[in-house]
Write a structure and sequence with these properties.
The protein has a single domain, classed as Up-down Bundle (Rhomboid-like fold), CATH 1.20.1540.10. Helix content is 59%, strand content 9%. The protein is built from 10 helices and 3 strands. The protein has a 3-stranded antiparallel beta sheet. The radius of gyration is 18 Å and the shape is globular. GO terms for molecular function: serine-type endopeptidase activity. It comes from Desulfofervidus auxilii. It is found in: Membrane.
Length: 233
């Protein structure tokens, strides 16, 4: 299944969502410009779980706290970047609309940090740098799950040899997505040598749950401009 768009128009211009997308793209272009030195950048600014359980050094703050923020703006390739930004574009504008522009930026960053911490504590011995906006974007999806369960996600679905457009209720689409992350994340922990795919599944899970929880503190008061079929709360 590949989501194309949702059915709820944004009431305000999603300048934070668009700014985040542009910033992520610019950072990725910078990564490309580094050539072979990009691996060093990823190791320094990505989240390496084992680093958080080692003896602290003089660079404790830089080594352990800065990457929680910087890692969410780095990506491992074009597909990684485009996939994350596409989901942010679909779900971000409405969540930004519901919580407000400034609060949305804070919400996004907190979800990304929460996702990184979830990955760290579920993979404490990993020495592989984790990067990507997927944890923060998962938080946005978690917020969307709470705020807009009656929305429809226009989805491209393969049916035999053909591709079909189907409107799937957001609550079902996002629940199905979450269960995929949960089962793959569980198998990745139980059978790390067999099921490892290089994906931080528990960052997705942690981000989604953070989004569900945090949105109750960030959302605005109930508003009446939504049609009845799109009531957010």
């Amino acid at each position: 299944m590949f989501p194309l768009k949702d059915t709820i128009p944004s009431r305000t211009f999603p300048w934070v969502t668009i700014s985040l997308i542009i910033f992520n793209v610019l950072v990725f272009f910078y990564q490309i410009s580094l050539g072979p030195y990009v691996e060093k950048l990823v190791f320094i600014y990505g989240v390496v779980p084992k680093r958080y359980f080692l003896y602290s050094s003089l660079n404790y703050f830089f080594d352990k706290y800065i990457p929680l923020f910087t890692s969410m703006f780095l990506h491992g390739g074009w597909f990684h970047l485009i996939g994350n930004m596409w989901y942010l574009w679909i779900f971000g504008d409405n969540v930004e609309d519901a919580v407000g522009h400034k609060r949305f930026l804070i919400f996004y960053i907190l979800c990304g940090i929460g996702a990184a911490l979830c990955h760290i504590y579920t993979h404490p011995h990993s020495t592989i740098p984790t990067i990507g906006a997927s944890g923060a974007v998962s938080g946005v999806m978690g917020a969307y799950y709470v705020l807009f369960p009656y929305s429809r996600i226009i989805t491209l679905v393969p049916v035999f040899l053909f591709l079909t457009l189907i409107e799937i209720p957001a609550v079902f689409f996002l629940f199905f997505w979450f269960m995929i992350q949960f089962f793959k994340g569980t198998f990745a922990i139980l059978t790390p040598g067999i099921f490892y795919e290089g994906v931080a599944w528990w960052a997705h899970i942690g981000g989604f749950i953070c989004g569900i929880i945090l949105v109750f503190f960030f959302r605005k008061k109930r508003r009446r401009w939504f049609p009845d079929e799109f009531k957010p709360w």
